[in-house]
């Protein structure tokens, strides 16, 4: 397993917004030498800009030789323009890592010299607190050493799962990439339902947030299967059973609703490819 100090050169981050900024913070937290990092971004968010300045990281350098790793974290929609500009900075040994939704290995490869090593990945926002999960696929040019380096960079923000079938990345995007938004929506909807049923709105918000965060933490810390944790809450013929009869409805419950949502997100990921 590689560590960040095994990276044979600079790490160039292209796009230091929410996701790129969280990754940079994770790398620095794990001891990446700021002198071995550089950022290209015309307007990083203020907190990321402050971190770049405080750590003395080179911002918008267009020289310094080919980086060992170029990690691309701009929006998929600006990718063609941005990749056309940054591709000449890569050398024959540069590993390109993308975290962009939808953008395929084939699309990424088309901007770089033949035989460039490319990893396509999809992280999620809990990366900002080191609790993300990333799913990644390498192209055929990625060496075992480069794969270990990509793994170390992605693992700085949480877990990493490698797949061989690129089509799985679109589905992973719909499950874990977008997934945090579904969980936040659950907290919002639970709060709104509590307020509608009579709780003061601010109290409903606090209860819903504490419940979602506590349930997630319980699942994480105990390692108990979510179905078992659900059963642990559910007394026979009690209040939870009454609610679950609605939520587990085979036609209108969470199951079919989430299946539809995941299918829509995966479809959108495939659309973003072109
Ligand atoms: N936010 C999320 O939950 C997730 C995002 N992603 C992917 O991460 C990528 C970035 O998303 P966010 O960080 O949320 O967006 P963001 O808008 O926060 O960050 C994008 C950054 O790119 C910079 N940028 C714009 N033009 C540029 C250029 N020409 N050169 C260099 N940098 C440029 C912007 O200034 C900004 O700081 C997207 O491709 C998205 O699909 C992947 C998984 C989860
Ligand atoms: O919504 C999006 O397109 C990005 C990718 C996964 C999460 N956010």
From TrEMBL:
Gene3D superfamilies: NAD(P)-binding Rossmann-like Domain, ProC C-terminal domain-like. NADPH binds at residue 63. The keyword Repressor does not apply. Its EC number is 1.5.1.2. It is found in: Cytoplasm. Its main location: cytoplasm. GO terms for cellular component: cytoplasm. It holds the Pfam family F420_oxidored. Keywords: Amino-acid biosynthesis, Cytoplasm, NADP, Oxidoreductase, Proline biosynthesis. Residues 166-272 form the Pyrroline-5-carboxylate reductase dimerisation domain. Pathway: Amino-acid biosynthesis; L-proline biosynthesis; L-proline from L-glutamate 5-semialdehyde: step 1/1. It catalyses: L-proline + NAD(+) = (S)-1-pyrroline-5-carboxylate + NADH + 2 H(+); L-proline + NADP(+) = (S)-1-pyrroline-5-carboxylate + NADPH + 2 H(+). This is Pyrroline-5-carboxylate reductase. It comes from Ancylobacter dichloromethanicus. The lineage of its organism: Bacteria, Pseudomonadati, Pseudomonadota, Alphaproteobacteria, Hyphomicrobiales. The gene is proC_1.
């Amino acid at each position: 397993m590689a560590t960040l100090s095994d990276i044979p050169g600079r790490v160039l981050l292209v796009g230091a917004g929410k996701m790129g900024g969280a990754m940079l913070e994770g790398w620095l937290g794990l001891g990446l030498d700021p002198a071995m990092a550089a950022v290209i971004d015309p307007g990083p968010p203020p907190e990321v800009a402050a971190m770049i300045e405080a750590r003395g990281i080179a911002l918008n350098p267009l020289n310094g030789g080919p980086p060992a790793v170029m990690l691309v974290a701009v929006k998929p929609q600006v990718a063609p323009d941005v990749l056309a500009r940054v591709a000449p900075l890569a050398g024959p040994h540069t590993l390109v890592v993308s975290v962009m939704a939808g953008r395929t290995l084939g699309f990424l490869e088309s901007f770089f010299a033949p035989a460039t090593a490319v990893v396509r990945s999809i992280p999620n926002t809990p990366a900002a607190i080191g609790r993300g999960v990333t799913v990644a696929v390498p192209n055929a040019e990625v060496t075992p050493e480069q794969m270990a380096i990509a793994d170390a960079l992605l693992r700085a923000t949480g877990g990493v799962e490698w797949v061989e079938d690129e089509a799985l990345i679109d589905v992973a995007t719909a499950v874990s990439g977008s997934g945090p938004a579904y969980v936040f929506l659950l907290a919002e909807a639970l709060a709104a339902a509590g307020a509608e049923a009579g709780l003061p709105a601010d109290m409903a918000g606090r209860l819903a947030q504490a419940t979602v965060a506590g349930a997630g933490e319980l699942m994480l810390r105990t390692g108990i299967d979510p179905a078992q944790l659900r059963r642990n809450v559910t007394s026979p013929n009690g209040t939870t059973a009454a609610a679950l009869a609605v939520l587990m409805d085979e036609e209108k419950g969470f199951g079919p609703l989430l299946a539809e949502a995941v299918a829509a997100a995966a479809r959108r990921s495939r659309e973003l490819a072109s």
